[in-house]
Amino acid sequence: MPTEAGTLTFLALLLPFISAFFAPILTRFLGHNAAWVLALVPALLFAHFLSFEPLVAEGGTAVGTVAWAPSIGVDFSWFIDGLSLTFALLISGIGALIVLYSGGYLQGHPRQGRFFSFILLFMGSMQGLVLADGFITLFFFWELTSITSFLLIGFDNHREAARRAAFQALVVTGMGGLSLLAGLLVIWSATGAGGMSALLGKGDALRESPLYFAALMLVLGGAFTKSAQFPVHFWLPNAMEAPTPVSAYLHSATMVKAGVYLLMRLNPVMGNTAVWETVLPVAGGLTLIAGAVLAIRQTDLKLVLAYTTVGSLGLLVLLTGLGSDKAVEAAVLYLIAHSMFKGGLFMVVGAVDHEAGSRDLTQLAGLRKVMPITFGAALVAGASMAGLPLLFGFLAKEEIYAAVIESGGWAAAAFASIVALFGNAIMAATAFSVALTPFLGGEPRSPKPAHEGPILLWLGPAVLALLSVVTAVLSSTTHRYLSSAMASAVVGARADIEITTIPHLGMPLLLSVLTVALGLVVFTWQFQARRTVAALLGAIGWGPDRGFDQVIRGLLKGSFAISRVIQGGRLDIYMKVTFIVLALALLVPMASYGQWPAMPAWPALQLHEWAVLLIAVIGLIAVLRARSRLTAIVSLGIQGFAVALLFMLLGAPDLSFTQFMIETLSVVILALVMTRLRLELADRRPLPTGMIDSLVAIAGGLGFGLLLLKATQLPFDDTLSAFFAAHSRAIAHGRNIVNGIIVDFRGLDTLGEITVVMVAGLAILTLIRMKSRSSAKMTEKGLKCAR
Amino acid sequence: MKNWLGILLLTLAWIALTGSWTIPNALLGVVLSVLASSFAREQRRRREVALRPLRIAELALLFLYELMLSGYRVARLVLMPRMELRPGIFAYPMKVERNFEITLLANLITLTPGTLSVDVSADRKTLFVHAIDCSDPDQARRDIADGFERKILEAFR
Amino acid sequence: MRTLIFRTIAPALTSLMLLFSVFVLLRGHNDPGGGFIGGLIAVAAIAIYGIAFGVPSVRRALYFHPLAISGAGLLLAAASGLLSFVQGVPFLTGIWASFYFLGAEIDVSTVMSFDIGVYLVVLGSLSSVALALEDREDG
Amino acid sequence: MAATGGTAIDLAAAIITAPTAPADWLVIAPVVIPLLTGALLVALRHRTGVQGAIALAGLALTIVCAALLFARVSAQGPIVMTMGRWLPPFGISFAADALGALLSLTASIVGFIAALYSLRDIDIAGRRYGFYPFLTLMMAGVGGAFLTGDVFNLYVWFEVFVISSFGLLVVGDDEARIDGAVKYAILNLIATTLFLIATGYLYGVFGTLNMADLHRKMAAVGSEAPMMTLATLYLVAFGMKAAAFPVNFWLPASYHTPKIVTSALFGGLLTKIGLYALLRVLVMIMPAERLALSPLIGWIAAATMLLGVLGALAQSDIRRMVGFVLISGVGVMLSGLAVGDAAGLSGAILYAVHSMLVVTALYLLAGMIRDAGGSFSLEALAGLYDRAPVLAAGALLLAFAIAGLPPGSGLWPKIVLVRASLDAGAGWLAAVILVTGLLTTVAFGRVFLLAFWRENADNPALAERRRKVPHLAFAALIALLAPSLAMGLYPEPFVAAAKNAAAGLLEPTPYVDAVFPGRAAP
Amino acid sequence: MIDALQSTLAAILILLGSVFALTASIGLIRLPDFYTRMHAASKAGTLGSCVMLIALAVYTDDLAMTTRALGGVAFFLLTAPVSAHLLAKAAHASGLKLWSGSVADDYATGQGRDKMAGTDVQ
Amino acid sequence: MTAALFLQWSLNVALGVLSLSFLLTVARVVIGPTLPDRVLALDMLVAVAIGFIAVLGIRTGHTLYTDIAIALGLVGFLATVAFARFILRRRTIEREEVE
Amino acid sequence: METALSLTVGLFFIAGIYLMLSKHIIRVLLGIVLFGNAVNLLIFTAGRVASKTPPIISESAYLPAGATANPLPQALILTAIVISFSFFAFLLVLAYRAYNDLGTDDTGRMRLAEPESENPPPMGY
Ligand code: NA
Ligand code: NA
């Protein structure tokens, strides 16, 4: 670790994880008020990262490295520039508010401590993700955000929908994570750079690499799934099963922006190519439209927000893909704005849900009187979302339109403009829906009597609303420390954002006005619009969300079918496959590498040697043809005898000795065991089976025989045996060389061998003596059958 | 050592096996024989056995003669183009009573021409003998009674 | 098996075979044989005894549980190898000593005790198997 | 000592005359200690009260020795002892290189922890009928397999652990274990017999059995020798032991049938020995043949990975699921062998270490789930998140580990292997590794959803079968999780060890020099 | 001289023994039922192997070998009739009938009198 | 013909004769038809093998083969006893084997 | 000699494999025995048959008088025989136990560990 600041940053990266460990304990003692203490963690982080602002605003960066797996060139490293720093501030800043909000939202919940813990874990992961320099560091935290998101979405685990949503998020983002890993490794392989800071200088090398396209597609796979781009957007609305603080934090302000972060991070090195500038805008545009349209359809406020989040993410991807400095600046501004207003709106919706007992648009009205602070926050956030002046959202919207109209050729500009206009208008409409519908109207109407929530519930949205105003009004400061610094990082060169909240005439303003107007129109006829979209989607009748279920079911059923085939439970099939593999393993290499033996001469054997071989063969045939197992057992003795005699003829008395004994004992034990069994007499194989079996057996035997012939045709190195012969008596004191090998030269083999003998004895005892649960019953049944 | 005869025989067997006529080997033989025979200690019973070496030798000679004869008879029988067989099992009432005598008799009968001991009756009085020529069982019984059984009685009583 | 003839002859056969098994064990170093074959012959002897007189008789005759004999055999064999630790030579190095007894030179060695270990393992394990199988039959 | 009688014998040409350093005994200790322990346990079989304690003591001592061995090998390079002080290749050499020492250390830890778990899992009957002797002797076999430097001796240790595993498999009271044992025993017997056959041919071709000697002679072998056929035969034999497709039937057929601690031991250790043998023989002794077989191994790896994880998805019984996941892990390791360079091999070795810890833990976890939830079946299990939160945490961490997600240990081998595959131009293999990881996530995500998160429907039959999870089980689980987490969070020691081990395989000169100090081939 | 005598005697015994073995095996093939075949095997067969062992005892100069071979002979003579008895008894008890040309079976009738005879002696 | 030559000659003859005996005995094992027949033939096989070993011992000068012959006698006896016991316990001949 | 032995080994393997492919467990066991013998012969043959003299040094010498049969394969086979015998005994008793517990000697019907009628895994969440 290079510097003191570096050490602090490292600790800052670890702090959330450590505090996550203590959160449940703290909550046990302090109850929901633990939030005040725990919020200090993100607050501290915020403060720490704020200290980098002067450096970063001047275009500086900070990197730090801790040895992690140096053997494989992997370091734990971080990289602080405008991009990561802005993200870090958003994460820790909003994180602090979310922790507080959670204190109120889950007050009295039996697992509040665990919730805090998960939120802090997530925070740490997200923090790590955006600050990571090394690819592996990035991937590590990337996956951690998926995992913590899984835990948070499934927090309310008793509901099937929550479990499903958590699972869905895990699978979809998990898929993306793997794609990302592959992409990063491909980049690594292509450029030799294993981290972002190192990569920044190698943009051209990467873009010219033949692996560029593959790398880009893989990275996009990660970014698009995380940032819920169409058609893998579906997990995000489902993730609204999570408690609202989670929705506010992960699924609007931070995690879903990880994909966008990645694209922004890679823009300097991967952007500025035709692929980049085609794929991103198209995917982003589609997502924007899909999100917007789907948002109209919803009446659940969280879902409305979720779909608009999808749309917003699409917009961000579109902007990032356009590639111009303007577009980047717009993206940066919109990203910051979105984090503030969407986070705030989610918290508002949560507060309403918490206090009024519902978050359904159709069940709520007139809450402004009973929840004034909440209404205020909602109003500001909604206005920012709609892009009304004096708010940060306005800056973003102006810059967006400025960017789209000057993008590429006129066709591209027209496409981008229309898409942006359409999407923004609908988002404005939904902003009005969310911020106005529950609060306006006559008398308060809600499932349970509503009132303003505790401070923990309104503090978060209020602060964010305030920030939306302050950052917009003090736009030059904001730009200096946040937006421009971030945009510079994304562009890869100095970029100064100058837009202020004072409207100035021009095409962008015109489009902004048009957006708000359109939005108001849609808002006014929101119920009709909702019905229309619902009818449309009903007509389509299928969506990727259902598709997910079908894929999973298909996967399960398919695997079940496959494993029934490949693991069918029948030993005879297992054996057949094994021996087929064996025969192939012997014959195919011999054939394809020409390792056949030479044609041997007719062996010169003495008469009695032939006789012994003949007896062996007769024994084999007798065993094969035996029609009862007893005949087979006795026949087994013949070949055993023949083998023993053969060993004797070939100068192996010890072997012969042992073979005689063993063969006899085998037959005896077989007979002993047979006494108690009544088994199938004959080996009935249907003809085809018999043919196949014979074929397999012949192929196997042929392979072994030929290989043996081949091996014995080579010259032989008998150094070992010569050594044994020379030293058996002289040093090992034994005239029987074989025995010398057994007890001395290779005594260890024998030690292992007698271990086997002993264990076999014990295992057999176990087999005989240890009763099965129902073996007594079975034995009875067996006896009955036998009778 | 109650079973001194057995141990002696075993020790002799040991010396025969090893072919080493040294005192340490003999001592080892004794030790091992004691151990080996102690394995079957449960089955040891006191027997009043009178040993008459000369008679035993006579019995042995008779046996060897009969054995060779028996081999010859079998050879002749199986090599004849047409085998004339009248086999059967006859019962032989024994005079010998002691286990080892019965066993000896039965074994000798088995190894000698044309006869084969199948079993001893439960009351240990009758020996069932399979004869390859059972046309005259009485003659066969007489042969046994006057041959082996008498010699055994002479040798061990 | 309850036949007089067999039961009369079985004890003698058993003793003889046990003796033979020790013979085969001890001379294995110079001629065909050794602990394994010796052990097998001993098992054959015990099996004959068992067939004649039944499992309980064999268990009484063996005195120790057969598997305990086997375990002891393995301990002996391994310990024979470990003795070389003391001598500063590798595992399983044969260590020989000889002394004179009644005028004859007697060799003792770890190789021999190793082989005796083998003998005991084979004897113990296989007789355990046979006895267990037979127990099952009777019970 | 070496009395020479009448003729003059050049002792220096026959035996090692230098005295053996006591530290060299470390190389044999991981075999001899459990072996002696096992023999003692058999001799004291009826003292069921002390069986567990003796086994634990023996295994603890084994860990100590294996750790010392590992430390020494890491610091000084391979350690060799040639038995009977015969010069290699005449005596049997034990040679611990980085690979052997690493795996034997990991195995000894796994064995000890399994023994710890077993204290509460194995009843009197199990103790009486040899559970602890089987366990310790299996560990002896495993240690021998990892450390021996002789091919035939390797076969013997294979047989030692295989027969011990047979014994472990039949300890219990479930009939299914007999069925499983039949398939396991017969197929494993075939596998080891194939190993023996291949070794017979190997001897016929080279006239030697010492691995270092084989390595030296391999360079000189003529093109006449049927080395490809032989290598393929070894691939089949060890592939079968490692449970590679399509010769892995024995594993899913049996691993779910015995006592859970037995499954845990098997899952942790046995397939890795197959893999180890493949590495030793194909990489160190037959590198050229491995190269030629590389595409085939790649396909086998891919099929094993995918079919393994698909099999896992198809299961309701979590034990069987773990078995299939284990198989897919074998595929992952084989992919490293297919790539075959330093990175690929170190990935495979790293995965082996990870899998030893994690698969063992997964089986133990399955046992604890059965205790806490009353069943092994995903159909029946539910509500464990509320009922057993600590278990849930353990399950989650293990699921991450096996799926290769942070902070689990599986992340690192996955990264290393994907990178190695990509660098070797085998993008498809990398893709398969990643897809396997995803599907593993799906499989264990479902376990977590159904068994833990799903709300508990009150099932009296199930409730009856529930029992308190013993503290010892948690201790065992944590003892396995701790190193796994350590590897996930700070991988360097593990990665360095694996890299070191792979380097030793690819460039075995230090190994050969340690076996034959300063001598040319005879 | 002694050598020549030894060799000649051994040769004769070898030939004799192998002829015995051959006749036993011919008998095994030609004789009509199990019980009659037993005669061939238990007499000629045993004799054959014993004679050949004696040949070996005669041939070798090693006294230990001689005594051992003779010990082997004694052992076979001890065991052969016992195994013949057991086999015959077992075959009969298992219901294997005598050849149709047999003239008597006192054993079967004896067994009829005393069912336990075959299984219980003591 | 010297004694040594005569011995050589008779050993060769004996090996041939014994080989023939082997084949005939094996034939009986294969033919059966009853289990006792096969066991008897197996017992006979042991006897022939002992003779064979003895002849080989003389022929090669390795009289140490004797011990193998003796051991073979021992286990052969055991095998026959075990089979007899088996037949006795089973009591009934397998149908297929009577046919 | 090696040629004849190779042929014999091949035949042993054929018989062994054919039996092992049977569904009846006893035949599988018989096959295993044949397979084991085939392996032993294989190892023996792989060590070549250069001489048929037993590798035993006479009492009066310190070295074998001339060429002997290769002792190493013999020692290896001895180890292998013993091991395969142990395995065989275990398998035999296992088969016996399987017959008792599972009520069949047909491996195709030993389906306790992997039952014939299995449900697909649960499909829900
Ligand atoms: Na395994
Ligand atoms: Na051995």
The first-to-last residue Cα distance of chain G is 68 Å
Mean pLDDT of chain G: 92
What's the arrangement of strands in the largest beta sheet of chain C?
1-2
User: Based on helices, strands and strand pairing, what is the structural class of chain G?
Assistant: mainly alpha
Q: List low-pLDDT spans of chain C.
A: none
Q: Name the helix and strand elements of chain G from N-terminus to C-terminus, one letter apiece.
A: HHH
Strand content of chain G: under 5%
Give the proportion of residues in helices of chain C.
Answer: over 70%
Quaternary organization: heteroheptamer
Mean pLDDT of chain C: 89
Number of domains of chain C: 1
* Structural shape of chain G: elongated
Largest protein interface, residues of each chain = A-D, 111 and 131 residues
- Tally of separate helices of chain C: 5
Q: Count the E strands of chain C.
A: 2
Helix content percent band of chain G: 55-70%
- Could you spell the SSE succession of chain C in H and E letters? HHHHEEH
Describe the structure.
The complex is a heteroheptamer. By secondary structure, chain B is mainly alpha-helical. Helices cover 59% and strands 11% of the residues of chain B. Chain B folds into two domains: 2-46, no CATH class; 53-156, no CATH class. In chain B, strand 2 (115-120) and strand 3 form a beta hairpin. The relative contact order of chain B is 0.14. Chain C has one domain (4-138). Chain C is built from five helices and two strands. In chain C, a hairpin with a 2-residue loop joins strand 1 (96-101) and strand 2. In chain C, helix 1 runs antiparallel to helix 2, helix 2 (35-53) packs parallel to helix 5 and helix 4 (66-87) runs antiparallel to helix 5 (110-138). Chain C is elongated. Chain C starts with a helix and ends with a helix. The relative contact order of chain C is 0.17. Chain E has 122 residues and is mostly helical. Chain E is built from four helices and one strand. Chain E has helices spanning 2-30, 34-59, 63-93, 106-113, and one strand at residues 104-105. The radius of gyration of chain E is 19 Å and the shape is elongated. In chain E, 66% of the residues are buried. By secondary structure, chain G is mainly α. Chain G has a domain at 2-50 and 69-102. Chain G is built from three helices and no strands. Chain G has helices at 2-20, 25-46, 71-102. In chain G, helix 1 (2-20) packs antiparallel against helix 2 (25-46) and helix 2 (25-46) runs antiparallel to helix 3. Chains in contact: A-C, A-D, A-F, A-G, B-C, B-E, C-D, C-E, C-F, C-G, D-G, E-F, F-G. Chains A and D meet through strand 1, helix 7, helix 8, helix 25 and helix 26 of A and helix 1, helix 5, helix 6, helix 7 and helix 9 of D. Strand 1 (88-93) of chain B pairs parallel with strand 1 (104-105) of chain E, so a sheet runs across the interface. The complex binds sodium ion (NA) (2 copies).
